[in-house]
Amino acid sequence: MAHRWKNDLTRADATPYAAFMNRRQLMGGALGLGLIGAAGAARAAEELVPNSWEDITQYNNYYEFGTRKDDPARNAHTLTTSPWTVKIDGLVDNPGDYSMAQILDAMTIEERIYRFRCVEAWSMVIPWNGFELADLLTMAGVQDGAKYVAFETALRPDEMPGVSYPVLDWPYVEGLRLDEAMHPLTMMATGIYGKTIPNQNGAPMRLVVPWKYGFKSIKSIVRITLTEDEPPTSWNKANAREYGFYSNVNPEVDHPRWSQASERLVGGGLFARRQPTLMFNGYADEVASLYEGMDLSKFI
Ligand code: MTE
Question: What are phi and psi of 190, to 5 degrees?
């Protein structure tokens, strides 16, 4: 990517929305070229106009802070995000408790503009700042027997009003196959629009897997474990008929209760009309090969 952000993002590093859009125009159609591939580039340059800061930070799913879309923005200020420690364990050479400062020191923060598609059939385009998960896993030293990566969100009843309700089996947990986790599109986000990521979006560090439904992108991570077996995932535990381990965006496989063929781009105005959902959320060229031989109509 052409642009690199400083590691220590603060509010002072804010890019006003207008300035950000202007810079995007200056960069022209080159936006995200390296990631999207030539075939999709023209379309991507046209489509990937990021949502506003307000869209991204006021309309959230973070059930630890409530189940309404505006609950996280209202309630998540209670989460203490500094100091923050991430335990990396399991099948790694260098297990341990890593402070966020240690992690940020070792990683290069860059900007990635990704489509984000929730299983509820709304979508946004989000300019994330962060680093490739592969870099963090490489730092931890992945051992031969590792086949999956398990993630866990903080569980702090004193700071998270939503966890007193048994909506999910807390803490929120997620997982990826190791090759999915090591894929260059998979990132850990620590910022949005060049600002420190707000609590409601998963501060201080959350996963972003742009070709999967949004619930795979687990927030406020405190533990990463390399495992041999497929780890349990929160939504699968809650309702295995509706939510699978893979959860790749697929317009041809409907949710049992609604169609996945189209989506509503959050933001209203010109973009209020539903738009077709793309296979692997538009990242098929990059990731379809990961699922060769699997019957895409069968697995969710
Ligand atoms: N992570 C945790 N810990 N708790 C949650 O409730 N919601 C998921 C995912 N990660 C969730 C979570 C869902 S359903 C979605 S769509 C995305 O976060 C929403 O991310 P956003 O609020 O930043 O758009």
Answer: -125, 0
